Amino acid sequence: MTQEDKIEEVKPEMNDFAIADYGDFEIYIKRAAAGGREYSNKIAELEVKYRRKNEMVKKGQISDEGVAKLDAAKRADYSIIAAKHIVAGWKGKFKGVDLPEFSEEAAVKLLSDPENQLLFIDIMETAANSASFEKEQDEIEIKN
Question: Which helix (H) or strand (E) holds 102?
C-alpha cells in the first residue's frame, strides 16, 4: 500500500482534519480535541511534569544549558503525543528530502528534531485552531 493510499484510508475516519501545505510537503493534522480523553490526559500530565521546572526557568534558577536540556526533553515528550494523536500522515518531500513512510516513530523523529521546531509549533497550533478545520471542511463540501 502506498503512502497516498494510507492517507486516503485515514481521511474518511477523520471528521476533523486539516492539511498543512508547505509546497512540496503536505502533512495531515487531526484536530487536537479529536485525540479525546487520552490526549487530554497526556497533555495534562506533561503540564504537571514541567510546571515546577518552567517556574524555575521564569525565575532564572536554571542555567542556559539546563534550559536547553529541558527544552529538548519537552520537545521529545510533546512530539510523542503529537505523533500519536495529532499527525495522521504526510506526503511529498520535506526540505527537499523524501521522508520515510509515515509511522508514529517517524513522526516523533521528525517533530523532535530541533531543526524542525517551527514545523512542530505550526502543527500544534493548527491542531488547536478550529478555523483550520472549518476551512478544510468547507473545501470538502465544495468538492462534493
Answer: none
